[in-house]
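Could someone model adenosine-3',5'-cyclic-monophosphate with this protein?
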Amino acid sequence: MDEAKLREIPLFGKLSKKERKLLALCADEIDVEPGTLVCRKGDSAHNLYVIEQGTAKVVRDEQYLDELGPGDFFGEMGLREGAPRNAHVIATTPMTLMIVAGPAFRKLERDHPALASRISVTIDQRRRWLEPVF
Ligand code: CMP
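Reply:
Sure, complex below.
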């Protein structure tokens, strides 16, 4: 994919041009139709997805959790935790997605502690929805 596109994604804001080029070389890009089930709850996690264009909804057991849009990422929880997908992610409009495979994701996190902690903060926020409210 094109390195210039990575410049517009906040998660990759601190990467140098050289690092963005390397990441662009190993990342894939897909277009999906509205209604596509991009992540299925219970499936094994192999990729991180970053939204370039379009929107998706996050749903768990019929419960709507969130709407994600350009610049947002998903699939990080299963990858980070070596756990199955904990929710469905379904395209609500035509989408263009960047796909980062597990090994590239792990290298990114190793090389960029700030990026890794940004992902940790997002996981903490998303995880709150998993906890029972008393
Ligand atoms: P993962 O569990 O790998 O696959 C489903 C994804 O949905 C999950 O990673 C997160 O990226 C995303 N997700 C889960 N819960 C929420 C939430 N409460 N808000 C936004 N996104 C979520």
